[in-house]
Amino acid sequence: MIEITALVENVCEREDLQAEHGLSLFVNKDNRKFLIDTGETRAYLENAAAMDIDLAHIQTCIITHNHIDHIGGLESLLKINPEVKIYLRAEAKSEFYFKYLFAKKQISAKRELFEKYADRFVWIDEAGRNFRVDLENADHRMDEDAYLNKGSNNSSGATLSYDLPGGIHLLPVTVREEQYICKDNLLFEKKDGKLIKDHFDHEQFVVMENAGGLVIVSSCSHNGIVNIIETTKKHFPNKPITHIIAGFHMKKSKGDGLNCSKEFVKETAEALAATGAMVYTCHCTGLAAYEIMQEVLGTQLQYLKTGSAIRL
User: Fold this and answer.
1) Residue 266 pLDDT greater than 60, yes or no
2) CATH homologous superfamily, domain 2-127+145-305
3) Helix or strand or coil: residue 206?
4) Domain range summary for the chain, segments of one domain joined by +
5) Among positive and negative, which fits the CA dihedral 222, 225, 226, 231?
6) Model's pTM, two decimal places?
């Protein structure tokens, strides 16, 4: 059984909870409890306390990418929980920016955070360099909790996943069809002192094995939810996808408008409909895109608000 609770996201109808432009999900999978992202502030911690959810003793926190609305609340967790391990891509060590005309703003965690709590971070490197392993073999034990897995039936260009106990898998996006990648052109990465377009190599998503099939959780899907679905199919070729929980990054940075065309929204919705999976969206999808997608998906699409929970 999997239960996913939205500790914080953009919409909230409960007076005792806070909403913000950010995302944090609490997951209970067969009594293994962990966190996916920490929102922008400590609001998720306060909401968790209001819902009697204990985050001081969880062992795992997965950060899907290094944008402040997903990692901004992390230090608050590190202060109250001395044991939690933080899993994120090695590429997330870079600095990331929002840039519009001549204005720019850093939107990633400061490197000082990574240095201050260095022993708490597990940096996942697609090439395995950080782990000093021989990738010619199928699996290699990384530590007592996780191992790197090349995936099934994939002799070349394998999708490497970092696998936690209990059928929990962290994957990079390896299928990258340009037409499905998010259309936000205001996001950048600093490399060699210059700002270049963010290619979202620092993004990862979660796949959980459940009764009946696979559950995908992807916080922002900058690389495109269709590409994420295809990556999952490549890694798990014989398992159906039954549920998708994801933001689709279709909302403008300011206001509720779209950062993409209506046609892009509809095309994405049609691809989701074709999977047959139940879809829960939130956060950066935005309400404007949600309404367009619901015209295509109907009851196959639901909105996951702050404080709401789904049981799979």
Assistant:
1) yes
2) Ribonuclease Z/Hydroxyacylglutathione hydrolase-like (3.60.15.10)
3) strand
4) 2-127+145-305
5) positive
6) 0.92
